[in-house]
Structures are given as C-alpha cells and as structure tokens.
Design goal:
Distance between the termini: 33 Å
Strand content: 5-15%
Largest sheet: 4 strands, antiparallel
Shape: globular
Strand order of the largest sheet: 1-2-3-4
Number of helices: 4
Number of strands: 4
Structural class: alpha+beta
C-alpha cells in the first residue's frame, strides 16, 4: 500500500518491527547477563538493572492477581489495530505516523514480554542524589518518544490552523 504523499504503510510497519526487534534483543541480553534484581553502575546517574514489572507504567497494577497480564496484552493488540487504521487514514502526516509507529512498536515489545514471561523486563535505571526514577526499557522509551512527537504534532497542527 503506497501512501499518498508520505511513506507507505510498510515503511511504518517495518519501523515498528525494528523497535520490537531492538527492544527484545536488549531484553534478551539483560536476561542472559543479569539475575533478577542485579544492578551494575555505568555512570554516577545511570545503572543497568534487571527488574520485572507485572504492571504498567510505574508498576501500576503490579500487585493485581494476574488478570492485568491479559488485560495489557489485549490492550496492546487493540491499540496496534487502531494505530494501523490511523496510519492508513493519515498517510501524509509524517510526524503523526512516526509518533504512533513508535507507540505501536513499544507496545508490541512489551506485549511480547507479557506473552513470553508474564511480566515486562526493565533494565534502564536513572538516578541522582539518592532519587531513583522507575526502571524502564527500550519499548517504554519508544512509547515516550511517540507521545512527545504526538504532542509536537498537535502543537504544529494547532499553529497551522491559526
């Protein structure tokens, strides 16, 4: 499917697949190198760790009885279908398509973890002066980048209409 004036759907799907592959490769490396809760200081503000998150962002619902695993799998699948529909509907909006592609790639990366392990593997830990940001992974980073790009795209859209 060629987009009218923008990259085709297959380009966006390939980019999302690239996010999933990089995310899963990094997690496989961490699982092979670290035991659960191991930590290695890289800099004074950055550690590599291995933690498992059965919840969502910031461990939301991590203490639930297990239903959240399947809820987040279904949510990721539904979101991916919706994003593919959006990519088809707005093929000329490059920043928008990039944003939702990053979100989809990150969501699928974390869904794969939930299906394979029952939890998400997080391994990036930022800290400063005794304060630790919740650990995250490349899929989470892609989702965050996508969200930032969505905001920038909306700001640009609003400015164009004024």
């Amino acid at each position: 499917m060629a987009a009218r004036g923008g990259p085709g759907l297959w380009v966006w799907l390939g980019l999302a697949l690239g996010v999933v592959v990089l995310d899963q490769a990094s997690k496989t490396l961490i699982i092979g190198t670290f035991q659960l809760n191991d930590s290695r200081e890289i800099t004074s503000w950055f550690n590599l760790v291995r933690v498992h998150n059965s919840g969502a962002a910031f461990s939301f619902l991590a203490g639930a009885s297990g239903w959240q695993r399947w809820f987040f799998v279904v949510l990721g699948a539904v979101a991916s279908v919706f994003i593919i529909w959006m990519l088809n509907k707005h093929p000329t909006q490059t920043l928008f398509c990039f944003a939702v592609t990053m979100i989809m790639g990150g969501a699928i990366g974390n869904v794969v973890d939930r299906l394979l392990h029952g939890h998400v593997v997080d391994f990036i830990q930022l800290h400063y002066g005794g304060w630790f940001f919740p650990s995250f992974n490349l899929a989470d980073s892609a989702i965050t980048l996508g969200a930032i790009c969505l905001i920038l795209d909306e700001i640009a859209r609003v400015r164009r209409t004024h």
